[in-house]
Write a structure and sequence with these properties.
It is built from 11 helices and 6 strands. It is mainly alpha-helical. Among the domains are: 55 residues; 71 residues, Arc Repressor Mutant, subunit A (Orthogonal Bundle), CATH 1.10.10. The strands form 2 sheets. Strands 1-3-2 form a 3-stranded antiparallel beta sheet.
Amino acid sequence: MTEAEEAFKAKVFEIADGIRNEVRVTNATVRKHLKDQDIKCSYTRLVPLVAEWKAHREYLKRIEGEATLPDTVQTALIHLGRMILAEGAAKEQARAKALKDAEGRAVEKAQEGRDEVLLAADRMEEEIASLRLEVTRLHDALARAQSGRGDPQAEHGPIAPTPRKAAPLDPITTVAAELNEKDARTQDPDALLADIANRIKGLLADHGPCDASQLHFHLQQEFGKRAAAMQMPLEAGWLRHWLRGFTGPAGGLIEDKGAFDLASRTADAGAAFQARVMADVHGLLEEHGFPMALPAITKRLAPRLGQELRLTGGQLGDWMKARPDLFRKTAKGWFASLPSQA
């Protein structure tokens, strides 16, 4: 900024300070006083300087410009206005926060209601699928009974039942074998169920645990048209309901967190894990050379097995009692190792 520009700026500030208590400070009033002093200027040059003066002096045109108001009153009014604005802003923020919280609670309630509706729909789908399967079985039985009336063999009286083959231990395999003994015609629902059971066993053996939706995806590609031709409910809900009939202590499947798996594989894995634990316990006792209590064994064994070890002292004690070839009970809850037979 040149000296002339600095002098002009100082003159504008001087005039604005002088008329502040008499009239409102505007571009027009400042320019009028400049003309009275024979100082020419354009609005382009004047407007930025007047705006800078107002910002520097905290000028409020709606309060100032009244000559009768003392400076202290003007300052108090300015602070009061700022307090009112701040209070209004705080109230608006609180109101916005309350609205946001209310909206969040409404969304949560709607989500809970939606989850309940979906759960009820899932249960209803399973029940409908079960009823459809039962109706299909009844229709098939009725059709077979009606077609058997004209059978020439019916005149010779009842036919002695043929001896059944020995059923496998796996229940789902048993069902598949029993259904396979029947006539595996294309329109036979039992034959379709047998094929589905065998395919599920293959999928679980190849892919490991699968939920009903994953199994349904594979089954729909292979058996979808065949099931549709027989009006059978090959749906995820029906499949989940049907597979749960093979779970339980005596079942061939297990269900964990919605996923199904072969019980035989889980049993084999459990037996292998138990054998591993017993070997580690035997090695631990031989390493220390003196009897140890079950809590101490569990504590020392945990770092070796990591997160896989989720055994209580009682369960570990039962396993050790079942291996008299490796362990000897010295007192209640205390065990010692025996020399290995190998």
